[in-house]
Every structure is written in C-alpha cells, then in structure tokens.
UniProtKB/TrEMBL annotation:
This is ABC transporter domain-containing protein. The keyword Transmembrane helix applies. It is found in: Membrane. Keywords: ATP-binding, Membrane, Nucleotide-binding, Transmembrane, Transmembrane helix, Transport. One of its GO terms (cellular component) is plasma membrane. It is a multi-pass membrane protein. It comes from Notodromas monacha. Residues 67-330 form the ABC transporter domain. PROSITE patterns: ABC_TRANSPORTER_1, ABC_TRANSPORTER_2. The chain crosses the membrane at residues 444-461, 519-539, 545-569, 576-598, 667-685. It comes from the Eukaryota. Belongs to the ABC transporter superfamily. ABCG family. Eye pigment precursor importer (TC 3.A.1.204) subfamily.
Length: 694
C-alpha cells in the first residue's frame, strides 16, 4: 500500500487536515495531525538520526520534509552566452560551482547555509529546490522523505523566497495575497477553499500572522520607482506568498540582506516561528547574521568554493573548528568567524584554498561528517529500495498528499487560472503608468493640439488633400508608437516575475498570456477612442457617423496590432534597450512602406513584399478610404492647372495606390496581424520559459 499517494489519502481526509489551519494562519496543528493521521495508516519509528522510518515508509509528512542529497555537482557556463535572440552563442566552457556535495536536513529544522560570497549557497539551494537555469547542469541524487525526487516535483512543491523579491508593484498587499490564495485554489482540481469567504479568511490569517495588517491596503510599490511598503514588509510578504501553499520545505535565499538588524531579526524570528509552530523545514542562506539572528537557527551548512566545510549543529561547529585549531575569539560572532576562516583572501588565494581544502577534508572524516554520510546513505538505500520495489518516486507518490494532486495527477483548470490571472493583469494594467490618468490626460492634450493644428486646413480641395493625408499620418502614428513602446517598455520588466512564478508551478503560460493579452485591450480601446474622437471633430474630417466609425474601427485595430507587436518584441528580448534598438529599424521600415512616403506600386519587386507586412499600410489605406471613397467634386482651385486636379476621392486613392474597396480586407488583415503577433509572442514566451528553467 502506498499510503502517501493521492489514491490512499481521500479528499475528505485531505480537507480534514486542511481544516485544522489555526487562527494565526499557520498550520500549527496540522503537522501533528497529519503525522498522527498518517501514522494510523503506517506505523512509524524514529531512527538513530531522528528521522521517521518504518516498514513501509512511503508515507510523507504533510507539513514537513527531510531532504538528502548525494554527490551533487553543478556546472554553470564559464562565460555567460549572449542570451538575447538572435545573438545566442553556445558555450561548452563550464565551471563547477558545486563539487560533489552531500548532505541531509531533518524535517522541522531551521538550517542556515553560510559561506563567503560566491561559495555556492544560492547554487546549492537552487539545485535542491529544482530551480536551475537551463544553461546550468546538475548531476547527483536528491531524495525527499526517503524517495528520489525529480526537479519538477521539487520546484512545484517547495517554496522559495528569492534573494530579490519581485511583485506587481501596482497591487496592494491584500490584493497580492488574495491573488496567491486564489491562484493556489485554482491549481487544485477541487479548490481547497470552496467559498470566497474562506479565501478572504485565509488572507486575513496570513496578514495577521506575518504582521502585515497595517499595510494591507498599501500598494507594494517598485523600489526606487514608486513608493510602497518597506523592505522588511516586502520580505514578510514574500514569506506569506510562499507559505500560503503550506509547502513542506521552504528555501529562503538571503532573506535578511539589506535589512537593518531589527528588521533582519523579525524576519528570522518569523522563520523560527514557522518552523516551531508548523514543523516546516526551512533552509536559508544568510550573510553576516547578528548573534541574535544566528541564535535562531538549529543547524549550519558551511560552504566554501562549492564544497561542504561543515554541516551539523551550531554547538558542534564551534568544537569542530576548535579541534582544527581555529578558535573563535570572544569578540567575534561565530557566524562571522566561520565565514572569515573559509573565505578566499585576495592576494593569498593559494594559502586560503589550502586552508579550506584542509577543513573540508577534515570534515569528511569528522564525527559530524561521518554521521551525515550515514544519514545520506540511509536515505538513499531507502529510496533505492522503494524504487526497485514499487517504482515509487516522489513524482508519482508525492511529497505530501496535496502536492501529489497538484503535481502528478491534477490538470490545472485553464479557465479558473485564466480568470484569476486576468484579475491581476487587469488591476495592474488599470494602475500601470502606461494607461494611467497622466497618460490619458497627455493623450487628450495631444489630441487637442493636433486637432487645432489641422483644424483650419482640412477641406475637400486640391490643397486640402495633402492636409488630410497629413492628419491621417498623425492619427496613425499617434496610435501606433505609444501602443507599441508602452507595451514594449513594460513586458520585459514584468517577465522575470512571471517566469519565476511559472517555474514554481503557479500557473501555465497559456492562461497567463491569454489574460495578459485580454487585459491590455481596454486600455487600447479607451486611449485611441478618446484621441480619435477629439481629433476627428476638432479637425472637421469627413462629416457623417459612418465615416467616423470607419476611422475609429481602423484606429482601434491599429493600436491593438501595434500593442501585440510590442508584446512580441518584449517577449523576445530580456532587455528593454535591446528590444527598442531592434524594433526601431523594423518599425521605420514598415512606416516607409505604409503608403505615405512611397507610391506602393512603384516599389521594386525585390522590396515590394514589405508593404504586405506593414500595418501602417493597412491602417493608412483604411483611413484614406473612409475619407475619400466615392467622394465626388473635390474643388479645384483656379491657380492649379485643371489637368492636374483630382476631381473625385477615388482618383485620390488611386494616386496613392490604394484600392477603394479594400476597407473590410484591411481591417481583417489588421486583425490577423494582431492574432499573428500575439501567437508569436506566446511562442517567444515559451522559448524564454524553456531557457529560464530545465
Ligand atoms: N547561472 C550562472 N552562470 C554563471 N555563473 C554562475 C551562475 N550561477 C552561479 N554562478 C557562479 O557560481 C558561483 C557560486 O554562485 P552562488 O550564487 O551560488 O554563490 P553565493 O554563495 O550564493 O554568493 P552570494 O552570497 O554572493 O549570493 C559564483 O562564482 C557565481 O558567479
């Protein structure tokens, strides 16, 4: 019997466990309850190392997990390849950043990973959490709760608080947490919280538990760009976002870096409380902890040059270094002392490396080192046993019952994910500087200015033809470039957060992209509508609602096709500046082939095809048709030779090489372009996501 799988833990039982969430928002009792509950299924014993094992130890803890890793190597590209398409270069030059490390972390412990900068702390945590970039290679074995566990299951099941926190700055703290809970709910086949009230209650619990209630309605903000919550509150919000899913194991990458000593202590205290109350396992890399912060940790992993220099309890660490002759001076904090001792001093690299090698070698044969090796061997012997007996790895039988369902069996509900993501995208788009009140005001002011500039010169005369064409050019460009660059400027900034969320299994790319594209539409209806309406009537373009609506329809399609093109370039490039540098020549070429500057039927066949991929052409043609099609009696001024006069609108269209009957076709092609750009953008996003993670 595989009592850890979804098959054996019924939904009612899972809900029973979930319902034990305590009022402070953390699953204080659920660890005990789940262990008791599972113990009924499979009798369990504690082994010499304090880990639970039994005759059939495939049952996982719901709220806590042990993790063991063996001979873990990690290689990174020695020279980072140029990652922006199309300049990607391949490099086989690899650098080893983790050097055959092995280790074991017990469930329900708070472990500090320490070492000097570049010692491999983040690399180790990324490798354990299954969040390694696609250009890095990890080799070795990882077992969770005595079962081999693949990277995808680990990344979907474990929480990871990143060194640099990222949020949608336009959302408030409460809105962000509601999104996370909603999203988590959407990922389960049957939501954990069945009513809106339960979801809001969960958010309330988290806000209270992490001391975020006083800033719950404050926008999170973007550091150095917009004001928002403080650094400590951001860190606590990052915790809240991760523990909302009750992960059995949480990785925190330098959560206290950049915080003052008191805030750093409150963050560390929060971790301590999570471990003590809910029995979670937390592995946390940390730089220069104060003595108070250091005291909160149970265990230490010391790294240097990608190797383990020590692993064990804090007390054992002191005597280990003492035995080796490295005595911590009474004026030194032990944490600082370890990092100093294991650091590679500039100018004395060889000597420092010899010291580190010596310490690492000594650790391997020390009592702590041997004990860790035994635990690792034990975990893997167990895992191998299970592998051969029941082909049970944690990807098939789960780290915890709920995560089983999440990662192995449940198909996320596309529409629920879509609606949850749409809410967030819509909120962000509505509050984004790209479509905010300032932008709208700017647009109105510009419309009045452009409208007045053309107001007295629009007429159906020979001279008026040039002015009407100029007005159409102004309308097309003013609805193209802001749409294009507005989106282009925001997508690369948002993408790292999206890719991080995607990598952690929060959602699929399909619902995300559909929600993103849909959320953009209202902004690209409102702005062109305001601009076009004002300009049309101030300029006094062709009278009649029919012609106005034709112009409006064409402008709306143009703005949305341009925004879709902005999405494509934003998804293709990591940096805004590279995206802009690539887009500009592309855009100018399309504009030249738009029909304003060139008679399109006079272009050489070699370049003629460009007009067919230029949305400027379709946009210009449709607007010109709206103004000139079937217009009779264009006035011919006396000073202009009669034989050079254009008498009808169709003659004007003919002069520019436009087809008077092509309006519907132009709109259809603009729509196809909109779909085409979005499809390509979605594929580009997929490619980026593949590059981002294994
Ligand atoms: N994706 C990568 N590409 C190239 N080099 C990498 C990559 N990831 C890590 N490295 C290199 O691996 C080494 C270890 O990096 P890691 O980030 O794990 O160190 P760290 O101990 O967390 O450092 P810090 O405390 O400064 O964050 C460093 O020399 C780093 O430059």
């Amino acid at each position: 019997m595989n009592s850890g799988s979804c098959d054996s833990v019924s939904r009612e039982e899972t809900h029973l466990l979930n319902d034990t969430l305590t009022s402070d928002g953390l699953s204080v009792a659920s660890a005990e309850l789940s262990t008791n509950f599972l113990a009924k299924e499979t009798p369990r014993k504690k082994d010499n190392y304090g880990s639970f094992h039994g005759p059939e130890p495939v049952v996982s803890y719901k709220d806590s997990a042990s993790i063991a890793w063996k001979d873990l190597n990690m290689f990174v590209p020695a020279k980072k390849p140029t990652s922006s398409w199309p300049f990607k270069s391949s490099s086989l030059n690899l650098k080893m950043v983790l050097n055959g490390v092995s280790g074991f972390v017990k469930p329900g412990t708070l472990t500090a990973v320490m070492g000097s900068s570049g010692s491999g702390k983040t690399s180790l945590m990324n490798a354990l959490a299954g969040r390694v970039q696609s250009d890095c290679f990890v080799d070795g074995h990882i077992a969770v709760n005595g079962r081999l566990c693949d990277a995808k299951t680990r990344s979907n099941s474990f929480g990871f608080v990143h060194q640099t926190d990222m949020f949608f700055g336009a959302l408030t703290v409460r809105e962000h947490l509601t999104f996370v809970v909603d999203n988590f709910n959407a990922r389960l086949r049957v939501g954990r919280y069945s009513t809106r009230g339960e979801i809001l209650q969960r958010v309330d619990h988290l806000l209270s538990a992490l001391g975020l209630r006083k800033c719950q309605n404050t926008r999170i903000g973007i550091p150095h760009v917009t004001t928002g919550i403080s650094g400590g509150e951001r860190k606590r919000l990052a915790f809240a976002s991760e523990i909302v899913t009750d992960p059995p194991l949480l990785f925190c990458d330098e959560p206290t870096t950049g915080l003052d000593s008191f805030t750093a202590w409150t963050v560390a205290k929060t971790m301590r409380e999570i471990v003590s109350k809910s029995g979670k396992t937390i592995i946390c890399s940390i730089h220069q902890p104060s003595s108070e912060v250091f005291d909160l940790f149970d265990h230490l992993i010391l790294l240097s040059e990608g190797s383990v220099a020590f692993m064990g309890s804090k007390q054992a660490a002191l005597s280990f270094f003492n035995d080796l002759g490295y005595r911590c001076p009474s004026t030194f904090s032990p944490a600082d002392f370890y990092v100093h001792t294991l650091g590679i001093a500039p100018g004395r690299e060889n000597k420092s490396r010899a010291v580190v090698r010596n310490i690492c070698n000594y650790f391997a044969i020390s009592r702590e080192g041997v004990q860790i090796d035994q635990m690792v061997e034990h975990e893997f012997a167990l895992a191998m046993n299970l592998e051969s007996s029941s082909s049970s790895s944690c990807s098939s039988s789960g780290i915890s019952s709920e995560f089983d369902c999440l990662t192995a069996r449940s198909k996320p509900n596309w529409f629920i994910q879509f609606f949850v993501l749409l809410q967030r995208s819509a909120l962000d788009a509505a509050r984004n500087p790209g479509v905010n009140r300032v932008r709208t005001f700017q647009k109105l002011a510009l419309a009045i200015l452009v409208g007045l500039a053309f107001a007295s010169s629009i007429s159906m005369t020979q001279r008026g033809i040039q002015n009407i064409t100029g007005a159409i050019f102004a309308i097309v460009t003013e609805n193209t470039f802001p749409s294009l660059f507005g989106v282009l400027g925001s997508v690369p900034l948002e993408l790292p957060l999206i890719l991080r969320e995607y990598q952690s299994g929060m959602f699929n790319l399909g619902p995300y992209y559909a929600a993103k594209a849909l959320a953009l539409i209202p902004g690209f209806i409102l702005e062109p509508f305001l601009f076009t309406t004002l300009v049309y009537f101030i300029m006094g373009l062709r009278p009649g609602w029919y012609y106005f609506l034709q112009v409006l329809g064409a402008v709306l399609m143009t703005a949305n096709a341009a925004s879709a093109c902005g999405c494509l370039f934003g998804m293709m490039f990591e940096s805004v500046s590279v995206a802009i540098a690539t887009l500009l020549p592309f855009d100018v070429t399309l504009m030249i082939f738009g029909g304003f500057f060139l008679r399109l039927d006079s272009v050489s066949p070699f370049l003629n095809w460009i007009q067919y991929i230029s949305w400027f052409r379709y946009s210009t043609e449709s607007l010109m048709i709206s103004q000139y099609r079937n217009f009779e009696n264009i006035t011919c001024e006396p000073e202009i030779p009669q034989d050079r006069c254009l008498r009808t609108g169709n003659e004007v269209l003919n002069m520019y090489g436009f087809d008077p009957e092509a309006y519907d076709c132009d709109i259809l092609i603009l729509f196809i372009m909109y779909c085409f750009f979005h499809t390509c953008a979605y594929l580009a996003l997929h490619r980026r996501a593949r590059h981002f993670a294994n």
